[in-house]
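ok so i was messing around last nite and threw this chain in just to see what happens. nothing serious, just curious
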Amino acid sequence: MFVCFFFVFLGSSSGSKLKVPELSINGTQHVVQAGQSLNLTCRGEMVHSWSLPETLSKDSKRLKVIKYACGRNGKQSCSSLTLSRTQASDTGNYSCKYPTSPAKKKKESTVYVFINDTSSPFVEMHSDIPKIIHMTVGREMIIPCRATAPNIAVSLKKIPGETLIPDGKTIIWDSMKGFRIPKATYKFIGLLSCETTIGGHKYSTKYLTHRETNTIFDVQLSTPRLVKLLKGDSLAINCTVTAAWNTRVQMTWTYPGEARRRGSVTQRIDQKNTEANIFYSILVVDKVRDIDKGQYTCHVKSGPSIKAVNTTVIVYDKVFINLKRRRKTALEAVAGRKSYRLSMKVKAFPSPEVIWLKDGLLAAEKCARYMVKDYSLIIKDVAEEDAGNYTIMLSIRQWNLSKNLTVTLTVNVKPQIYENAVSSFPDPNLYLLGSKQVLTCTVYGIPQPKIKWMWYPCRQNHSKTRHGFCSYTEGSFILKAGSNIGNRIQSITERTAVIEGKNKTASTLVIAEAKSSGIYSCVASNKVGKSERNVSFIVTDVPSGFHISLEKVPIEGENLILSCSANKFLYKDIAWILPRTVNNQTKAKRSLKKEYSITLTLTIKNVSLAHSGTYACRARNIYTGKEVLQKKDVTIRAQEAPALLRHLTDQTVNTSNSAILECQVHGIPEPQISWFKNHEEIQQESGENSAYSPTFCSLFIYPFALDSHLNSSTFRSEAHNELVLQAQQKCSRRFGL
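result:
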């Protein structure tokens, strides 16, 4: 079959030189109905080629290109392009061009061909799955919804319903490109739709704009900042970049062997993370040598954002362990410290296995407070039992290399006073005037503390001070045996003994005679610190420091005398609280201040039975600030006339025997008793010749008196008191001899 093509090229002469190829169709646009054939011819001064739309393959069976010689004498080159059964997707630029080189400008002729298809108004249809359009804020963006005919009316909408109207500036419609947006803004981020209606049928194609960013969240290397290798080992460094979803990065390496291409780089991206993109760049250097040691840097770039991380590689010739003490001085810790680190100077390669021993046993297993970190042993909450010998053992088993070092740790303990722990002495201690006293201070500490006794003189003070009850102006005094400052110190002795498994020192202060009030302070100190025990030494002449005394139980008509005494260093504001029945006019108070106490005496004259009741004395404790009471129940005794309790009876006594006569009487006040013999009062006689000895209500008759009275006699007694002065009660007894 022979096909003959005849084309007329307009606008140029066949004899003129063609600087650019010439197409058989004038203008920039050409319309072909879908299903028809597209015929194009290109003529030029040299061999040329065709450039087709991306959607049309040069291998398509519908496409045919024929090249032939043309022009006068056949010195020009022509080619014809025939595309049969055209379809909407064939729409695009068709170009004829000369071969180009870097030094020459591109020479071509182009025509945009529309394949008009009323059933497919858009070249590309994305109805179900939108096409992704990358955008950068401030730069041009094209929504490529190209039409298959130049006169199709297309609208742009942002889903869900906003219509974006082309204004020739911010939005420009171009049927050969689509919607062109010179400077894209955040307004265009989202799902967009190009829509048109043909023959009452609505067509749309969708696009999803994707805003590119340059946000790099993090860059990390898989290796530490210092990498140690042995010659012949392999080095692998992974550089991991975490970036925002819309960010793409460029990752490069700089390293010592880069010029010799010692390393190989592998890169990949992980988009499984729902919050960010993860980029990886892995640098591998096989069989490292001396030339590979140095700094390795991973550079990351995304637009204007730049970050870099690095590590240093050291290459050793052989394995080694160097182990030394970090300090030449003795290792000391203090009990109670939050933590203490036992650390040695270690240089080794590769990293050895580390084991710490305490007194020959695994430290970590011996105590939960021990923690091994790197080459150090950390002791938490240092205690006295942490003292001992510690050994660090380093070993590299695969090379049969090991070293160890032992150090001794001393744990110092701040002085502790045992008496402070067992008694806090909430109240001051009272010591009876003139008594001998012994104060003890039991001390423990490492190193062994030095102990001294101090004395702080005390004067009366009605406000609590640093030492409790004493304000002192004379300062403090260091005590020694024989000191007479305050109280005479009989002796100060120290004794060391093992108590509860610890060497404790007991210091004993013996006070010969308590006379002065003050503060005795036991001070224990060592290089860690000091502790003190203060003993408030309050000398008192009042039992228990606060006391009520009754001179005698009164009888009505007598005087009631009550005394309230309180230690003046411990109490103040002393006052009496009387029963309601006491008449103010009958009482008298007298205050007496002594060296150690204050006494408030209450005198009520000519008491009656109505004065019976509870008498209270109130004082305020200087230390606690609380009021305290001492109570005394007083019962006034009523006067009673003498009364005979038992009558005398007659009795017979032998002349050689003695006799006792008793007359039991009762009366208030106590009755006075007189004895009578045959109506004559018997007087108390002194000397050996006395025949009678009357005592109270008893009469003793000696034997010789009985001999001188052969006849029977009558004895009687009389008793009287203030109530009945002349009343008599006869205690009569007849004696028969």
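not much to say yet. Residues 418-422 form the longest helix (5 residues).
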